[in-house]
Amino acid sequence: MVKIYTANICGYCTAAKQLLERKSIKYEEINMTNDKSLQMEIIEKTGLRTVPQIFIDDKHIGGFSELRDLEASGDLDVIISEVD
Fold first, then answer.
1. Is the Cα dihedral 66, 28, 55, 50 positive or negative?
2. Distance CA 75, CA 80 (A)
3. 83 by DSSP, 3-state: which?
4. Is the Cβ–Cβ distance between 13 and 65 less than 8 Å?
5. What gap in Å lies between CA 27 and CA 62, rounded to an integer?
6. Backbone Cα Rg of the chain
7. Degrees (nearest 5) of the Cα angle 51, 52, 54?
8. What is the pLDDT along the chain (84 residues), one digit of tens a residue?
């Protein structure tokens, strides 16, 4: 299961979702824009305030840059194949 924590008006969030959609990877989007408790939760989980924050099988992989790097190296396919 892929979870992506996002916010409104976030180009990196859009890019991450588009990458996942191009690869037909299903994901759950959690929009934190107006939810302070979710924002605090993600800060506690990751130590980061930026979005997107992406988790695969509850393992934090980072944001869009890390997702893009996983895709470029071919590791994203490997990780996803282990989930499905």
1. positive
2. 9
3. helix
4. no
5. 15
6. 12
7. 135
8. 999 999 999 999 999 999 999 999 999 999 999 999 999 999 999 999 999 999 999 999 999 999 999 999 999 999 999 985
